[in-house]
From TrEMBL:
<feature type="compositionally biased region" description="Basic and acidic residues">
    <location>
        <begin position="235"/>
        <end position="254"/>
    </location>
</feature>
<feature type="region of interest" description="Disordered">
    <location>
        <begin position="426"/>
        <end position="449"/>
    </location>
</feature>
<feature type="region of interest" description="Disordered">
    <location>
        <begin position="209"/>
        <end position="257"/>
    </location>
</feature>
<dbReference type="InterPro" id="IPR045865">
    <property type="entry name" value="ACT-like_dom_sf"/>
</dbReference>
<dbReference type="GO" id="GO:0016597">
    <property type="term" value="F:amino acid binding"/>
</dbReference>
<feature type="domain" description="ACT">
    <location>
        <begin position="39"/>
        <end position="114"/>
    </location>
</feature>
<dbReference type="InterPro" id="IPR040217">
    <property type="entry name" value="ACR1-12"/>
</dbReference>
<dbReference type="Pfam" id="PF01842">
    <property type="entry name" value="ACT"/>
</dbReference>
<keyword id="KW-0677">Repeat</keyword>
<feature type="compositionally biased region" description="Low complexity">
    <location>
        <begin position="209"/>
        <end position="226"/>
    </location>
</feature>
<dbReference type="InterPro" id="IPR002912">
    <property type="entry name" value="ACT_dom"/>
</dbReference>
<feature type="domain" description="ACT">
    <location>
        <begin position="132"/>
        <end position="215"/>
    </location>
</feature>
<feature type="domain" description="ACT">
    <location>
        <begin position="351"/>
        <end position="427"/>
    </location>
</feature>
<comment type="function">
    <text>Binds amino acids.</text>
</comment>
<protein>
    <recommendedName>
        <fullName>ACT domain-containing protein ACR</fullName>
    </recommendedName>
</protein>
Length: 471
């Protein structure tokens, strides 16, 4: 039997592997060059997707990227990231630094090893077996409560979940096990029942995807779970574009978190120039790089700068086939996709954290109490660490307005004031005020690289050719 794939592709893959073995990645963590941030420098043989994987690792380690300088022309990838911890401090914890070097070093990234063995997650969790459920459809108050109630009734234990809402649409990725065995659910009839009931909850507005019995028992490691945000971006983008084709309209942007995205030709250098200006928040760089990568664009040069509460990003990109974007429709599509990716992650509402002993049906009970007190969940991150549940919810009232203090106190009294906490969100919650980003200095409100290069380090990188201006 002939092997799948063309011989030329196999030769290219083997050559790339040889180049990587001869030039293993070099990772340097520098705490002396910058007074306010730790520099993470990554030099490696280049391959499509390298930038996204590096940004994914830094994001999973809960680091904030304040500045980034990207250069990947030719066969070499050379990036510098200025990072701080969640408190805005430089990295002095030796364990965190070791994790950076281990996660980004030789043999670590997934294109150097099978994806399931890539340690890109923060937690060094043992491999577990779960069943993944994908939901996408029209959002409404109480929907999440109903979803978790159905899963509890069907004896499904929720191990982890991430839920996003944007523009009256909801997307959820839920990992479950059998409540009795804590293993993946592999009974075909039971999986069909799960799918049927969840589709009924969505009321025909979209899809509930449950794996077949043969694939449901496939092992899923902590590294796989770490890519939930990328999958949710893909789900919501595909849903928006499908609805646009059907004439139903796409995601509607929220006020207060708007992004200004420009996609223009840069003919003299053979690139397409992408400018992004928006309110800064955690995971912003991941969202933009993820979108560019999944749309099959390659970032050759780029600069990312966060100043105060605003972020400025500039990328020089080409198609994966090394051609710039020549179609006006393609440029408009890319701009819309970037705007949507940024806006759908602008978490809206009051942040509540639930930390308690995990049990089957916990999420069903908690979200039922939310619903009974008029709270609607806009975003949720559900994780299980051993026997402990560590869950984060962003809530508004049923009409989308901020929740009242009385409602919050009533919910805490019923769930438990010692396990449910109100937290200030350091990641840039969109509270609905203040409008979009302010216009930065520069001609016509644009923030070009020529205007952004000011500090010695930026000028140094510019002179080395790591930053190129089209202005």
């Amino acid at each position: 039997m002939m092997a799948c794939g063309s011989p030329s592709t196999e030769v290219v893959d083997e050559f790339e592997k040889l180049v990587i073995r001869m030039n293993p990645p070099r990772v340097t963590v520098d705490n002396t060059s910058d007074m306010t941030a730790t520099l993470v420098k990554v030099d490696s043989a280049n391959k499509y997707g390298t930038l996204l994987e590096v940004v994914q690792v830094l994001t999973d380690l809960k680091l904030t990227i304040k500045r980034a300088y990207i250069s990947s022309d030719g066969e070499w990838f050379m990036d510098v990231f200025h990072v701080v911890d969640q408190e805005g401090n430089k990295l002095y914890d030796g364990q965190v630094i070791d994790r950076i070097e281990l996660s980004l070093g030789a043999g670590s990234l997934s294109f150097r090893a099978p994806p399931e063995s890539s340690p890109s997650s923060v937690e060094a969790a043992a491999e577990t077996t779960t069943t993944a459920i994908e939901l996408i459809g029209k959002d409404r108050p109480g929907l999440l409560s109903e979803v978790f109630a159905v899963l509890a009734d069907l004896k499904c234990n929720v191990v982890s979940s991430e839920v996003w809402t944007h523009g009256a649409r909801v997307a959820a990725l839920v990992h479950v096990t059998d409540a009795a065995t804590l293993a993946a659910i592999d009974d075909a009839a039971r999986l069909d029942t799960v799918k049927r009931l969840l589709r009924h909850l969505l009321r025909g507005t979209a899809r509930a995807t449950v794996p077949s019995a043969s694939s449901a028992s496939r092992p899923r490691s902590g590294a796989t779970a770490a890519h939930a945000p990328r999958r949710l971006h893909q789900m919501m983008r595909d849903d928006r574009e499908r609805r646009e084709r059907d004439g139903a309209g796409g995601e509607e942007g929220r006020g207060g978190g708007g992004a200004v995205v420009e996609v223009v030709e840069c003919k003299e250098r053979g690139y397409t120039l992408v400018n992004v200006r928006c309110r800064d928040r955690a995971k912003l760089l991941f969202d933009t790089v993820c979108t560019l990568t999944d749309l099959r664009y390659v970032v050759f040069h780029g600069t990312v700068i966060a100043e105060g509460d605003e972020a400025y990003q500039e990328y020089y990109i080409r198609h994966l086939d090394d051609s710039p974007i020549t179609s006006g429709d393609d440029r408009r599509r890319l701009a819309r996709c970037l705007e949507a990716a940024i806006q759908r992650r602008n978490t809206e509402g009051l942040r509540l954290e639930l930390c308690c002993e995990d049990r089957v049906g916990l999420l069903s009970d908690v979200t039922r109490i939310f619903r009974e007190h008029g709270l609607s969940v806009t975003h949720a991150e559900v994780t299980t660490r051993g026997a402990q549940a560590a869950n984060v919810f962003y809530v508004v009232d049923a009409s989308g307005e901020p929740v009242t203090a009385q409602a919050v106190e009533a919910v805490r009294a019923e769930i438990g004031e010692q396990v449910l906490f109100v937290r200030e969100d350091a990641g840039g919650v969109n509270t609905g005020g203040g409008g979009g980003p302010r216009s930065p200095p520069g001609r016509d409100g644009r923030r070009s690289l020529g205007n952004m290069i000011r500090s010695r380090s930026e000028k140094f990188l510019y002179n080395l050719g790591l930053i190129r201006s089209c202005s």
